[in-house]
Amino acid sequence: KLHFVLAGNIDREFWIDRIEAALNENQAKAEPAPALSLKPLDASKMIFEKSEKEQAHLLVGYRSYGLKDDRRYVLQIIQSLLAGQGGRLFLELRDKESLAYSVSPTRLEGLEGGYFGAYIGCSPEKTKKAHDMMKIEFEKLMNVRVPDEELARAKRYMIGRHDIDLQRTSAIASSILYEDLYGLDYNEILTYKRHVDAVTPEQIQSVARDLFSGPSITTVVGPETSRI
Fold first, then answer.
1. Residues paired with 115 in a beta bridge
2. Going by DSSP bridges, is the β-strand pair 216-222/45-50 parallel, antiparallel, or unpaired?
3. Closest C-alpha to 183, from 105, 69, 23
4. Is residue 29 within 8 Å of residue 146, measured between CB atoms?
5. Which residues are within 8 A (CB) of 27 and not within 5 positions of it... i.e. 6 or more apart?
6. Gap between the Cα atoms of 130 and 149, Å rounded
7. For residue 104, how many other CB atoms are within 10 A of its CB?
8. Of 150, 164, 193, 216, which has the maximum CB count within 10 A?
9. How far apart, in whole angstroms, are the C-alpha atoms of residue 110 and residue 76?
């Protein structure tokens, strides 16, 4: 099954004729992709890779949700709460404690599952404290209700960023294509604001508890003094 998406000021009949002509010239069928499955993450794991550079790179990650899980909107808000110069990780770990050169959350939703975590680049001797404080910020999301003003600010940022991205017709076409290709509602780009606005502080706590109470993988790259 092939998917074609056209966006913008187009001549519909012209492109239908061009696509049909191209398909008639090439009738080859693609082989279906093999089914994939993720092995369960049963226990936390710590990985250390020695590097001679006088800087440590710390990444903590948790198994997360797939593309078709509606909790992905909650995850996006959690990422927004943690990210940027006004986000919790930056304010607590860099501004207040001077622990990080660089700090940011990271997430991905895939067909078979996803991940959520955070990265910190710091001085080797600060690695353990940076790791501990990162976990504290995750625990706050689990145990403390997000203030309404902070949540509203995160939502405004996400919706504004989404609208800016869709100013390009190529972005509209790409979003429609991949949403349809992966079995999602291809109109989702038009209903994004509704999904984001519907997220509540209680949902954030519920997803945070589900996510951050599970096993994690922690990776540190740096000199011996950065080993946790």
1. 63, 108
2. parallel
3. 69
4. no
5. none
6. 27
7. 16
8. 216
9. 14
Q: Nearest CA to 73 among 137, 151, 142, 147? A: 151
Nearest to 100 by CA among 54, 49, 57: 57
Cβ(57)–Cβ(103) below 8 Å: no
Q: Name the token pair of 3.
A: 């998917």
Cα separation, 207 vs 210, whole angstroms: 5
180: which residues sit within 8 A by CB, 6+ positions away? 3, 5, 186
Q: Which among 161, 156, 154 is positioned nearest to 87, based on CA atoms?
A: 154
